[in-house]
Amino acid sequence: MTNELPAENFTERVQRAERFFIYFANGDRAYQNHKENMAYAGTALLITAFGSALLSENWPPVWTQYPVLQFSLPVVSLVVVWTFFLSYVRFQLTNRRWIAIRLAATEHVLASWASQRPPAEALEPVRLTEQGTADSLLRSVFWPSMSMPIKLAVVPETFPKAFADALADKAKRGSLAVIHERILFLFTWFMFVALLMKTVVVLNAIVCSGLTPG
Fold first, then answer.
1. Residue ranges per domain, the chain?
2. Predicted model pTM
3. CA angle 170–110–151, rounded 5-degree value
């Protein structure tokens, strides 16, 4: 008498994969909502901070009597703060869009399996590979592109082949969530440029006149 377990038939493998995809999708939806809320919170904070500075008579500040530092310190601090906000919002929205793409891939697999029996190779495990270049990642920092490179840092490496193929296709096609992402990016750029222009104009007048505000 042996202790070997009976071989799992193909139907059981499909059902197990379907249960995994449903569980996977439920977790992704919760994560997507979390990332969206975090992005909105960061954008609201940026609007409050930059909007207050735009309307304030006390911005830009003068922290030193040296003309070069009078001009450079507020400008550099503004750029640093804006870069931090942009990086934070980009991180939240990029992960949110990745989840939208993963959900689209999951729904594609489940819908195709509901309409027809999947082939045996659809369940074979495959290892994903990263797609995209540093150049495309650099461009996306300043303006989100429709397609997204596959990054193993946010996607498990091993998945059934059907899902890996669907994920690669959806990542190449992109998600309409990029439209919402671009609107937020455009608004943050507008706030930054407006405040930067005010900062440069006011500081230039202060430095040229040799006066301090007050």
1. 11-56+65-209
2. 0.71
3. 35
